[in-house]
């Protein structure tokens, strides 16, 4: 019997485990994109440190106070704030302030998310312009780590202008690029829409249109023809789109001029020639060039962070580096000069001219504030890229042969490393100037005091200390404007409209509620007298001066055997006070009238009222003086 081998069934292969990565994560297998992602993460960690060390300052407090003084109306969002017309920014601050007043975590979170979005979109723009090549990483480093953009990021009032404008720049340029490459007319109209968003958040948004037109005609379409011929051709072919841009600019300008009166004494004015010259020499001669190479290294501390103070050696070195880049790129790269012209034009028209118009009448020190050129960091990176690299699809970009790729990579690596080191030193030095602890402690104390205050507390308006809000802000720096958002609704009303009270309170320099006194005119009974003299039931004080306004108050010290009523006359204002029976009372009352001289009239001349002291002036903490 012949043995046969039993056939065994084949075992099925075990199922293969496949993990499909999301497209964005799979893209990180590219060394360039992985490096870009690491740079973005590192820059965001650095931004978190800036936000941790920062806090509300100056204009931030004014925005919160304004939000609680007004409803979210067209009149409110179209007000001009210190020369800035920014309805989108005012609407955003109103919403965030109403959600949680003086909540740094909230506003810092919004700023951080916007910055993260900007970082990713900036990378997308560089890829669309130049392709996914290692050469875009130095440009990304410039955008992400420039010290020029750091101060505006950490100051909320500046960030609501600067960060949205930077976002708009990369979004509008990306859509304009796609439109120029023939991907659809809708991208051109989307770029126009982004220009509108930019204008809603910053007056510099009006210059995005000019930037789009300049880059489109210089690099994105008909590059080989002359720049002027390209410009005429662009207008001829797409006249509807560019006409819409012009109409948007005209509408914005008309609206700005119509609303300029909502900020009297602020904003645009006739520049002083000497101030203007000094301002421009600081802004364009020192601050921007030193910041462009990673400076300024040194900062001068101020209430809002720091002013750039680059050394003369750094300034000279920065100009040498920029001049060398200009010469080398023009010699090697066709149309490189166009990129430098665009950069210079943007710096002059979008950054220097508005700053001179808004600030050139009184101080040149604003030329040391990097926030005025923070948006130029994006333009610098894009124009530097255009001066060095061909855009996608461009042929014949260079006049002569380039050095070996290994040599170019070495130079790019060394310069990027040097830039990063210098930037880290500058940013670290800037962080040392941030002093948010003072304002944080003041606001937290005021918040706790208001939370613990009884419902019937009467709090008179007093200016916040000078080291928190500067006196130039007038009545907008009063506690009734800036601290009222921290109070319960009923107390908030009485902070704005205080009543006569024998237990009036004010905020002291640390944010605590303390008994009130009046600083200014004071008169008291003479030595050995029981009461101050009156004539026919009237006491007249000709030397009492009232400047009026919200931060003016009077005080009466008195003795009375029964409740009585008196009328205080200050100019045309009449204040009726109901005084209680007391052997030694003191009542404070608000005064809004402007006058020299004050009358106190006994409504019942026979009433047994004895005046022992009178005061008229500014509400202050007991024993203190006005801020």
Per-chain topology:
Elements: H1 23-26, H2 31-53, H3 59-69, H4 74-77, E1 80-81, E2 84-85, H5 87-99, H6 104-130, H7 136-145, H8 150-154, H9 156-180, H10 185-201, H11 208-220, H12 227-237, H13 239-259, H14 273-292, E3 299-302, E4 305-308, H15 312-332, H16 336-359, H17 376-388, H18 405-431, H19 437-452, H20 479-482, H21 489-496, E5 505-507, E6 513-524, E7 538-547, E8 553-560, E9 564-570, E10 573-579, E11 582-590, E12 594-602, E13 609-621
Antiparallel strand pairs: 1-2, 3-4, 5-6, 6-13, 7-12, 8-11, 8-13, 9-10, 9-12
Helix pairs in contact: 2-6, 2-7, 3-5, 5-10, 6-7, 6-9, 7-17, 7-18, 9-10, 9-11, 10-13, 11-12, 11-16, 14-15, 14-16, 16-17
Task: Please provide a brief summary of the model.
The protein contains 21 helices and 13 strands.
Description:
- By secondary structure, the chain is an alpha+beta fold.
- It is built from 21 helices and 13 strands.
- It has helices at 23-26, 31-53, 59-69, 74-77, 87-99, 104-130, 136-145, 150-154, 156-180, 185-201, 208-220, 227-237, 239-259, 273-292, 312-332, 336-359, 376-388, 405-431, 437-452, 479-482, 489-496, and strands at residues 80-81, 84-85, 299-302, 305-308, 505-507, 513-524, 538-547, 553-560, 564-570, 573-579, 582-590, 594-602, 609-621.
- It has a 5-stranded antiparallel sheet with strand order 5-6-13-8-11. It has a 4-stranded antiparallel sheet with strand order 7-12-9-10, with no helix packed on it. A two-stranded antiparallel ribbon has the order 1-2.
- Helix 6 packs antiparallel against helix 7 and helix 11 (208-220) packs antiparallel against helix 16 (336-359).
- The termini are far apart.
- It comes from Streptosporangium amethystogenes subsp. fukuiense.
């Amino acid at each position: 019997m012949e043995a046969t081998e039993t056939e065994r069934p084949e075992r099925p292969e075990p199922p293969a485990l496949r993990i499909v990565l999301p497209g964005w994560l799979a893209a990180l297998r590219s060394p360039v994109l992985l490096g870009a992602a690491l740079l973005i993460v590192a820059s965001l960690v650095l931004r978190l440190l800036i936000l941790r060390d920062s806090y509300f300052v100056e204009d931030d407090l004014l925005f919160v106070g304004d939000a609680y003084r007004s409803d979210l109306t067209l009149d409110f969002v179209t007000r001009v704030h210190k020369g800035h017309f920014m309805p989108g920014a005012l609407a955003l601050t109103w919403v965030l302030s109403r959600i949680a007043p003086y909540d740094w975590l909230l506003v810092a979170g919004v700023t951080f998310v916007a910055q993260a979005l900007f970082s990713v979109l900036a990378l997308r723009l560089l890829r669309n312009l130049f392709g996914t090549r290692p050469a875009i990483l130095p440009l990304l480093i410039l955008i992400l780590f420039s010290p020029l953009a750091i101060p505006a990021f950490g100051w909320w009032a500046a960030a609501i202008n600067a960060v949205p404008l930077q976002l708009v720049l990369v979004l509008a340029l990306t859509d304009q690029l796609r439109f120029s490459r023939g991907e659809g007319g809708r991208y051109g109209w989307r770029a126009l829409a982004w220009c509108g968003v930019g204008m809603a958040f910053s007056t510099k948004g009006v210059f995005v249109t000019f930037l789009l037109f300049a880059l489109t005609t210089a690099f994105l379409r008909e590059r080989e023809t002359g720049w002027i011929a390209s410009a005429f051709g662009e207008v001829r072919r797409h006249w509807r789109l560019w006409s819409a841009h012009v109409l948007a600019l005209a509408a914005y300008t008309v609206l700005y001029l119509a609303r300029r009166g909502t900020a009297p004494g602020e904003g645009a004015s006739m520049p002083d020639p000497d101030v203007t010259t000094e301002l421009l020499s600081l802004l364009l001669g020192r601050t921007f060039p030193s910041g462009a190479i990673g400076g300024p290294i040194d900062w001068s501390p101020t209430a809002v962070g720091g002013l750039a103070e680059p050394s003369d050696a750094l300034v000279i070195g920065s100009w040498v580096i920029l001049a060398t880049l200009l010469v080398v790129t023009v010699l090697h790269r066709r149309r490189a000069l166009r990129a430098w012209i665009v950069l210079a034009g943007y710096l002059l028209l979008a950054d220097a001219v508005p700053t001179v118009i808004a600030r050139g009448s009184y101080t040149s020190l604003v030329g040391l504030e990097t926030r005025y050129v923070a948006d130029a960091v994006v333009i610098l990176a894009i124009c530097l890229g255009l001066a060095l690299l061909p855009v996608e699809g461009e042929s014949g970009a260079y006049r002569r042969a380039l050095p070996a790729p290994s040599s170019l990579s070495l130079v790019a690596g060394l310069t990027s490393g040097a830039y990063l080191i210098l930037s880290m030193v500058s940013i670290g030095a800037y962080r040392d100037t941030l002093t948010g602890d003072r304002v944080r402690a003041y606001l937290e104390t005021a918040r706790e005091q208001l939370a613990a205050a009884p419902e019937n507390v009467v709090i008179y308006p007093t200016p916040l200390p000078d080291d928190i809000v500067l006196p130039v802000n007038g009545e907008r720096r009063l506690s009734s404007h800036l601290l009222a958002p921290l109070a319960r609704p009923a107390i908030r009303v009485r902070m704005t409209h205080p009543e006569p009270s024998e237990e009036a309170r004010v905020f002291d320099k640390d944010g605590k509620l303390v008994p009130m006194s009046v600083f200014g005119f004071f008169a008291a009974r003479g030595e050995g007298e029981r009461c101050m003299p009156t004539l026919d039931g009237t006491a007249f004080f000709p030397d009492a001066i009232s400047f009026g306004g919200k931060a003016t108050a009077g005080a009466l010290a008195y003795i009375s055997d029964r409740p009585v009523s008196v009328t205080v006359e200050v100019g045309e204002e009449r204040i009726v006070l109901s005084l209680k029976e007391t052997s030694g009372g003191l009542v404070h009352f608000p005064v809004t009238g402007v006058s020299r001289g004050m009358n106190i009239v006994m409504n019942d001349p026979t009433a047994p009222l004895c005046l022992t002291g009178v005061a008229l002036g500014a509400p202050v903490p007991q024993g203190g003086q006005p801020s």
